[in-house]
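User: My advisor asked me to double-check a structure prediction for 2Fe-2S iron-sulfur cluster-binding protein before group meeting. I don't want to rely on an old file, so could you generate it fresh from this sequence?
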Amino acid sequence: MPENRAFRIRLQAEPAIEFEGQAQHSVLEAALRAGFRLASSCRNGTCRACMCRLLSGEIAYRIEWPGLSREEKLEGWILPCVALPRSDLELAPARKT
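Assistant: Sure, here is a fresh prediction for 2Fe-2S iron-sulfur cluster-binding protein from the sequence you gave:
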C-alpha cells in the first residue's frame, strides 16, 4: 500500500469530526495533525485511554499490541494511537463512565 495514500476518518462524537489520515501515520497522529485532540496518554498501545470501536473500515498494526484482549479485538475495539488506517474509517469513542 502506498505510504502517501489518504483516507477519510470519521469519529462519531458530539459533534462528529472528520479528518484525513495517511497509511503511514496512526489514527491519533492524523487527528492531531488535523487539529483535533483525542483522548490519549501513553501513545504506545498499552494504557487504553484512546480506545475506540471500529464501526467500518480496516486498520493494521505494525506489531501485536498488548492493550486489547482477544475478545475486545473481536468486538471491534482498536487503539488509535497505534492503529494505521488501511481504508476510510468510522469510529466511535469508548463511553467514559
